Amino acid sequence: MSLPASVRIVEMGPRDGLQNEKRLVPTDTKVELVRRLEGAGLKAIETTSFVSPKWVPQMGDNSEVLSRVLAQAAAGVAYPVLTPNLKGFEAALAAGATEVAVFGAASESFSQKNINCSIAESLERFRPLTEAAQAAGVKVRGYVSCVVGCPYEGAVAPQKVAEVAATLLEMGCYEVSLGDTIGVGNPASISRMLEAVMKRVPVARVAGHYHDTYGMAVANVFASLQMGVAVFDAAVGGLGGCPYAAGASGNLATEDLVWMLDGLGMATGVELDALVDVAAWISAELGRDPASRVARAVLAKRAQRATTPAQQ
Amino acid sequence: MSLPASVRIVEMGPRDGLQNEKRLVPTDTKVELVRRLEGAGLKAIETTSFVSPKWVPQMGDNSEVLSRVLAQAAAGVAYPVLTPNLKGFEAALAAGATEVAVFGAASESFSQKNINCSIAESLERFRPLTEAAQAAGVKVRGYVSCVVGCPYEGAVAPQKVAEVAATLLEMGCYEVSLGDTIGVGNPASISRMLEAVMKRVPVARVAGHYHDTYGMAVANVFASLQMGVAVFDAAVGGLGGCPYAAGASGNLATEDLVWMLDGLGMATGVELDALVDVAAWISAELGRDPASRVARAVLAKRAQRATTPAQQ
User: Do the Cβ atoms of B219 and A218 come within 8 Å?
Assistant: First the structure.
């Protein structure tokens, strides 16, 4: 088995996670979440989204969150923010952003339903943004959503994903994160998709962003590692849930990812026990138990140890 | 990717699942669970355990459950029962058993703590049982527990697993099921363990029995499929939890396994929607939600469809 020696994790909790939370999270809690994630060793933390507060009230404090986070930025940590358009980019830049992220769907129906334009149109709209970013020396990461399945049209063609990924790189993105937005991918469909993408895009520019809706995220990460992918997105505590099926799981939990990578002997820089502390803390702030199996198992073992010290 | 074309699933819910449930499950419910699992297409259902009711009160109705199940046995379905000793085997035989299962640990400490004897002694104790089974024309399946880690001694040597597996086959078991009892395996440690076992045992005699305590079970199944393993144990609804960490996950949920195998294009004979119905039913009988991500996602989607029929 030839697998990457180290993996870069891009933490999605503060943005992709909290964005889907119904309960409005206080700004202090958001900033504290980023601080605690840094403390656990994460080196890339997507911090907020510069989307209109009319559409996503949860992210209405984006400028304040980013300014406060950047005012005490940790050395060597990136704080990308999502910028859906030029206006958002300009606001992010004003708040001090040095890295942003843009997104395109690999499904025409998803693009139409979500942003009311075709995939091609949506990518063209990003061109002035990526040009402005380049001029300002701001790094741009690209997301492709619905890379194996779409809630409206079902299966998505791997060639379409490859095309959108290649376009995002051509526009100046340094990396494309391939999102299984509704979590329907399995190791076979993810591998087929990656094969198509890797015909157009170097594997070093590819990240996997897999949702755990059907419990397949770690298996999909493992299949991707076998193909050389070495960057993965995840959200502490599995924050966010699935916006397409209430009650189902969403983002892969960062602690589940780290647990597997630790086991595979890959360096991540993240300290699992500290990360589980963050998962327990933010879950408590949101009034629930952590969604991840690793957090639940580690916390259960700690509770056991606390009651039976002699056995350990 | 060369993977097996079909997979045999051995359902653990009625035995390994319910055995760990604190709430005493009525005999009628147990029999009904087996019936419903047959209805979903399962062809091997471990039905009960002929262990002393003093140790496992939950299985105190073993003879009645097995007799009633066998009185209306479905064609082509196997109903193995766990028989920890000759006395249990004789009771199982009296109730009509045509297949039984025995177990050995790959960890000396686990063997000592659980059955108060060495691994070698425990296997020798099974010899009269396997001889009696052969004489009676009863098939015997073997389990090895703690195949990657032990709650008392940590990591377990792959060679030890291979040795116990080979001994069980030599004693007449038709198959050995390799159990990651505390769910600490990952695709790398599971692969190393399988490599060692497959030096002594043909892959066609090997089954994987992976617990989902740290969310790795499907990834471990995927790694095992890549090595040619084509038999897996699982429990509907993830029944049973983890006896070594209260609140953590235990058995891999059968619906999570089937969902992945369906996605990989492998035949299982199991109908996913019907299986999710069984998971929902037995979880409701036990007074909780199904533990599996697939059951939760499928049920969430059904609920969504019921409220927004036009969108589908």
Answer: yes
Q: Which two tokens stand for residue B151?
A: 């709650």
Span B253-300, pLDDT tens digits? 999 999 999 999 999 999 999 999 999 999 999 998 888 999 999 999
User: At a CB cut-off of 8 Å and minimum separation 6, what does A114 contact?
Assistant: A105
Rounded Cα distance, B196 and B210, in Å? 17
Helix/strand/coil for A269: coil
Q: What is the dihedral of CA B289, B290, B295, B296, to 10 degrees?
A: 40
ipTM of the predicted structure?
A: 0.93
Q: Each residue of B112-121: pLDDT tens digit?
A: 998 889 999 9
Q: Would the pTM count as exceeding 0.90?
A: yes
Tell me the backbone φ, ψ of residue B183, rounded to 5 degrees. 70, 25
CA of B156 vs chain A CAs: smallest distance (Å): 14
Q: Are A18 and A51 contacting, i.e. CB atoms less than 8 angstroms apart?
A: no
CA gap B239, B278 in Å, rounded: 11
Instruction: List chain B residues with CB under 8 Å of A223.
Output: 222
Q: Residues A51, A88: contact at Cβ < 8 Å?
A: yes
Which residue from A246, A294, A296 is facing B300, i.e. has the nearest CB?
A: A246
What's the helix, strand, coil split of chain A in %, to 5? 50, 15, 35
Q: Which of B293, B294, B305 to mutate to test the interface with A (most CBs of A within 10 A)?
A: B293
CA dihedral over A135, A139, A143, A144, signed as positive or negative: positive
C-alpha–C-alpha distance, residues A255 and A11, integer Å: 11
Q: Are A240 and A279 in contact (CB under 8 A)?
A: no
**Architecture of the B8-306 domain:** Alpha-Beta Barrel (3.20)
Distance of alpha carbon A232 from its chain centroid, rounded? Answer: 8
Q: Report the first-to-last Cα separation within chain B, whole angstroms.
A: 34
